[in-house]
Design goal:
Keywords: Acyltransferase, Cytoplasm, Differentiation, Fatty acid metabolism, Lipid biosynthesis, Lipid droplet, Lipid metabolism, Phospholipid biosynthesis, Phospholipid metabolism, Transferase. Belongs to the peptidase S33 family. ABHD4/ABHD5 subfamily. Its EC number is 2.3.1.51. It is found in: Cytoplasm; Lipid droplet. The chain is an alpha/beta fold and 320 residues long. The chain has one domain: Rossmann fold (3-Layer(aba) Sandwich), CATH 3.40.50. It has 12 helices and 10 strands. The strands form 2 sheets. Strands 1-2-4-3-5-6-9-10 form an 8-stranded mixed β-sheet, with helices on both faces. A two-stranded antiparallel sheet has the order 7-8. A hairpin with a 5-residue loop joins strand 1 and strand 2. The chain starts with a helix and ends in a 7-residue tail after the last helix.
């Protein structure tokens, strides 16, 4: 179990992580949902210019909602938030069972656990007051973006799905980290030394590794749910590739891959055979954490997709 002291250190670590990488003002709060649960949420808003020389201002695009991957949290988007919020509102939240969100007991049934994640996201959308939203998910967040879109197609507009795999074992994947106790931060620094390089433009110390440790040193609620939704080596018990073609045809889907990722783009191209409108972008030099490996290219790619989606919604021509 996690002590209050550990939770406090996790909160303090996140507080120091974000301001260092984010220049724009933002709000933060726990959004309360049912069963005494809550989702830790950051909100970024860019005020539109007071007037437009070309005429009336266009309607602002739907809010962009960022969903982190397995073992992650909101602060890992630190190199993306300023840029992505330049064209409209951006929200990012810790998924139920992860980070600073509540850590409830999940169903041991894969479908039940998935539904808990998805229902929490829908309750969050309603409490925040969003009529619709653009979902951008990484890893587990991508999987849940697709699952949400299947269940609530009228609330979700485009969905980005990025690599849906993670190495699994018969045990909770991060149990060793918790067993390491005070050596946990050093373990993360050793096993995932690449994170220091990914965020070197923002930090020159072990801030990110410490953040990841404190995220995952807590009660393994979402982690256990993830384990129950997968078989060894991270394959989903309810594969999204077998269901994603059921997403409504008017909901755009884009995949963003890193050229150096261990997760190949085969799943994206498999869907494209039945959905030719699916967009697939490969960012050179990026690995699995494409948004952190090549943040500038990733940000520009997302902004371009957003702009193209807005044009389509207005019935305008877009470049091929």
């Amino acid at each position: 179990m996690t002590s209050k002291h550990e939770n406090q250190r996790s909160a303090e670590n996140q507080t120091t992580l974000l301001p260092s990488g984010v220049k724009l003002p933002f709000s933060r709060q726990h959004v309360r949902i049912s069963n005494n649960n809550y989702l830790w949420t950051l909100a970024f808003f860019t005020q539109p210019p007071p007037c437009s020389p070309s005429g009336p201002l266009a309607q602002p695009r739907p809010p962009l909602v960022l969903l982190h991957g397995f073992g992650g949290g909101v602060a890992l988007w630190a190199q993306n938030l300023d840029s992505l919020s330049s064209s409209g509102p951006v929200y990012t939240l810790d998924l139920l069972g992860f980070g600073r969100s509540s850590h409830p007991q999940f169903s041991t049934d894969p479908e039940g656990a998935e539904d808990q994640f998805v229902s929490a996201l829908e309750e969050w959308r309603d409490k925040v007051g969003l009529e619709d939203m653009v979902l951008l998910g990484h890893n587990l967040g991508g999987y849940l973006s697709a699952a949400y879109t299947l269940k609530y197609p009228h609330s979700s507009i485009p969905v980005w799905i990025r690599a849906m795999g993670a190495v699994m074992s018969p045990f909770n994947p991060l149990a060793g980290l918790r067993l390491a106790g005070p050596l946990g931060p050093m373990l993360v620094q050793t096993v995932r030394s690449d994170f220091k390089q990914k965020y070197s433009s923002v930090f020159d110390d072990n801030t990110v590794s410490d953040y990841i440790y404190h995220l995952n040193a807590q009660t393994p609620s979402g982690e256990t749910a993830f384990k129950n939704m997968t078989i060894p080596y991270g394959w989903a018990k309810r594969p999204m590739l077998e269901r994603i073609d059921q997403v409504q045809a008017d909901i755009p889907i884009s995949f963003i891959y890193g050229s150096r990722s261990s997760i190949d783009s085969d799943s994206g191209y498999a869907l494209k055979k039945t959905r030719p409108d699916v967009q697939i972008i490969v960012i050179r030099g990026a690995g699995h954490y494409v948004f952190a490996d090549q943040p500038d290219d990733f940000n520009q790619t997302v902004l371009q997709i957003l702009a193209g989606t807005e044009k389509k919604s207005r019935g305008e021509e877009t470049e091929p």
